[in-house]
Amino acid sequence: MPGIGERPKRADGRRNFDALLTAARAAFERDGVGTSLEAIAKDAGVAIGTLYRHFPNRDWLIATLIQGSLLNLTALARELLELDDRLEALRRFVDAAIAHACTFRGLAETLSVSFQDERSPLNEFCHDMHDSSIELLLRAQAAGVVRDDIDGDNLWTMILSSAWLRETSQPGEDRSLVVTRLALDGMTVHPA
Prior knowledge:
By secondary structure, the protein is mainly α. Helix content is 70%, strand content 0%. It contains 9 helices and no strands. Helix 1 (11-31) crosses helix 2, helix 4 packs parallel to helix 7 (123-142) and helix 6 (107-116) runs antiparallel to helix 8 (152-168). It starts with 10 loop residues before the first helix and ends in a 5-residue tail after the last helix. The mean pLDDT is 89.
C-alpha cells in the first residue's frame, strides 16, 4: 500500500485515487469529516472496496487531503522563528493553526483524538504541529512576553478549542476570535 499521499503507479489506480480525493474534499467541505465513506466512493464512481484499497480508514483519507497544509503550517513555524517580535510570531502561528484545524467541519476533534492515537496516520502530523507551537511558545517565554506556567498542552488545547468554536459558529459570527484573543492576552506577561 502506498504511503500517505502517494499516488498509485498504474493509470487506473491513479484515476481512482484522484477521483476519491476530489470527491472526499467536496464532501468534507460540504458535510464535514464525518461524511459517509460510501457516499464519497459513490461520488468518485468507484466501489467502497476501492476506497479502502487506497485509504484503509477515514484518517488515512483525511491525512492525505491535509498533509500539504500541515507541512505548510510547520514551514510557517520555522519562518516565524526568525521574527524578532516573539509574541507576534506565536500569535501568527496560533491563528494559522486554528485556521488549519477548521479546514473541514469536525477536523479539530479528529486532530484532538489523533494526537493521542499513535496508530492514526494523523498522529505524526499532530505532533509536528504541537512541537512547532512549543518551540514558538518557549521562545516567547524566554523573551519574557509569555507566562512561564503555560505549556504546550495548554496551547494545543486553546488552539483546538478555538477551532471548534470557529467551526460551530453561525455564518458571519466567528466566536473564536474573542476567545482566542482573551486566551492569548491571559498568557501574555504585561509590564507593571
